[in-house]
Specification:
Layout (H helix, E strand, L loop, with lengths): L1 H34 L6 H7 L6 H11 L7 H13 L3 H4 L1 H21 L3 H13 L1 H7 L8 H18 L5 H17 L3 H14 L7 H28 L21 H13 L13 H4 L5 H25 L13 H25 L1
Helix pairs in contact: 1-6, 1-7, 1-8, 6-7, 6-9, 7-16, 9-10, 9-11, 10-11, 10-12, 11-15, 15-16
């Protein structure tokens, strides 16, 4: 009896222990990268240079330096740390390191909701741990360091909001609404970062008997969020801003219209971020060929949280004649890691059930 209880307790803490170990090593890799890159690079210097004067001086300068001036959340985040640490990159990186740790925890909470085996956790967090893009951007003084945590928070809160719906307290709704407004204000991609996971959260409830009520309640909630957030968003996008520079959109990633194989290889290679883990990409096809539960939810997640945002970012880059770069969809990378972990987790669970029945 004692041994049985001990085994149960060990199993209870196994998943968080494994996740904590992988995340600890992932944070170590990010800090090692920071230690080899202490001097600011050009884009980081460009951002920090706006922070010399007062906060109001920085705000007044944004229309002359940024495309969507007031949607510059990372400027506001870094500003007080620049006043304390000046150009010390360890000091400037503090909020981004905190955001990275928060992102790990949010990803764990999302995984805990869906995963049935330890392999889902191992696959998801291994991809996140070793993804070179996530390592590079985690501690740089740019908005891309915050994107992954912001996206994971939107997914987690969207799931909570849709699950509890009318039963959620007004206080919690106000808190979530405030976070959603700040997400939209953080960057011009904030709307995309919010609405892709929110749309997934709604669509997986389509067979729920209260689906119409969920849609109605969420629509009311979003109308308030947008009423607060959109005026500043519209001013930033259509108001005074620096002149757009024109570039070859496909200078760094091949054009899908000329080299579809090269385009897909580049996009999915960046999503997984490490050649040694490419074999896990076969998990993309599992929901389409294996009849396990949740397969349709996984297809919807792949479409809405991975393919759609990358497609919209691509269209935006083409429309504005701007580079299409992997850092623009760095926030999709933890979603893709979660998707692969989820699909492999479901497949392993399906095989186990089949073997037990036989």
């Amino acid at each position: 009896m004692f041994l049985s209880n001990y085994v149960k307790q060990a199993k209870k803490y196994l998943n968080p222990l494994v996740v904590f170990s992988i995340c600890g090593y992932a944070l170590y890799l990010r800090l090692i990268h920071l230690s080899t890159h202490l001097s600011l690079w050009l884009d980081e210097e460009y951002q920090v240079a706006r922070m010399y004067g007062s906060f109001m001086d920085m705000l007044r300068a944004l229309p002359q330096t940024e495309y969507c001036p007031y949607l510059s959340g990372d400027y506001y985040l870094i500003y007080p740390f620049f006043k304390i640490f000046s150009f010390n990159k360890w000091g400037l990186a503090i909020p981004h390191i905190i955001a990275t740790i928060a992102g790990f925890y949010l990803l764990y909470l999302i995984c805990r909701r869906y995963f049935k085996t330890i392999w889902g956790y191992i696959i998801t967090f291994t991809i996140v741990c070793f993804n070179s893009n996530l390592i590079i951007h985690a501690t740089e003084i740019r908005v891309y360091a915050v994107f992954p945590a912001l996206a994971l928070a939107c997914l987690y809160l969207s799931l909570r909001l849709v699950d509890q719906n009318i039963n959620m307290s007004l206080k919690k709704k106000w808190a979530i609404g405030t976070f959603f407004v700040l997400t939209i204000w953080f960057h011009v991609y904030g709307i995309l970062i919010l609405f892709c996971p929110l749309l997934f959260s709604l669509l997986i409830k389509i067979k729920d008997k209260d689906f119409k009520l969920i849609i109605k309640d969420t629509a009311k909630f979003l109308s308030v969020v947008l009423a607060v957030a959109m005026p500043l968003w519209l001013i930033s996008v259509f108001g005074p801003h620096t002149v757009y520079n024109r570039y070859n959109t496909f200078q760094y990633i091949p054009s899908p219209f000329k080299d579809i194989a090269g385009f897909l290889k580049s996009v999915f290679g960046n999503l997984i971020g490490r050649k040694q883990l490419y074999f896990l990409l076969s998990g993309i096809i599992l929901p389409f060929i294996v009849p396990y539960q949740k397969r349709f939810q996984q297809m919807v997640f792949l479409a809405l949280a991975v393919i759609m945002p990358i497609g919209l970012i691509l269209l935006s880059s083409m429309n504005n004649e701007h580079y299409f770069l992997q850092r623009y969809f760095v926030w999709v990378m933890p979603f893709f890691a979660f998707f692969l972990g989820w699909s492999w987790d479901s497949f392993i669970g399906y095989i186990r059930k089949k073997s037990v029945r036989q």
